[in-house]
Amino acid sequence: MTHDGELRLHLRRVLDALCPVVFRELTDPRELARWWGPDGFTVPSVESDLRPGGGYRIAMQPPEGELFYLVGEFLEVEPPVRLSYTFRWEDPDPEDRETVVTLSLRDIDDTRAELIVDQGDFATERRRALHEEGWTQGLGKLGELLASILD
């Protein structure tokens, strides 16, 4: 999606849990490891210092290939409604650059919350599309996890 010539990603999801539960899933290392990443990926470890200026490091294991790492710094931590952080790969693709992710939450009724994901600016449309696929699949897993909690 292009906005003022910039390559940005903007996704909206309705999840079967209220903001405090969703925020925990987005920030607790054990919970994040259960759903993070594209289909088939696992997350062997998550290190997190959840405070503005604190860092994080997520180990991601693709179905085939080498383990790699996502790292960044928290910019805003406002439980349970907002989280913002830098996002970069430890060994970036030549088309990658550091982006900023902002996750915004709001309860929409007594049982559901809306999550808005905004990320950018990407260097190329190809990298934006790759992140859109990863977020879409990861949020699908998060949605399934939250729905299973209710069962």
Give the topology, please.
Blueprint: E1 2-3, E2 6-15, H1 19-27, H2 29-35, E3 42-48, E4 55-61, E5 68-78, E6 82-89, E7 99-107, E8 113-122, H3 125-150
Antiparallel strand pairs: 1-2, 2-8, 3-4, 4-5, 5-6, 6-7, 7-8
Would you kindly provide a written description of the structure presented here, covering whatever features stand out?
There is one protein chain. The protein is an alpha+beta fold. Helix content is 28%, strand content 42%. An eight-stranded antiparallel sheet has the order 1-2-8-7-6-5-4-3. A hairpin with a 6-residue loop joins strand 4 and strand 5 (68-78). The radius of gyration is 15 Å and the shape is globular. 16% of the residues are buried.
Mean pLDDT: 94
Please give the largest β-sheet: 8 strands, antiparallel
Put simply, the count of helices is 3
Estimated helix fraction: 25-40%
- Enumerate the spans where pLDDT stays under 50 for 5 or more consecutive residues: none
Count every beta strand, where a strand is a DSSP E run of 2 or more residues: 8
Largest sheet, spatial ordering of strands = 1-2-8-7-6-5-4-3
Overall 3D shape: globular
Following the backbone from N to C, one meets helices and strands in this order, namely EEHHEEEEEEH
Distance between the termini: 36 Å
Strand content: 35-45%
Rounded to the nearest angstrom, the radius of gyration is 15 Å
Coarse structural class: alpha+beta
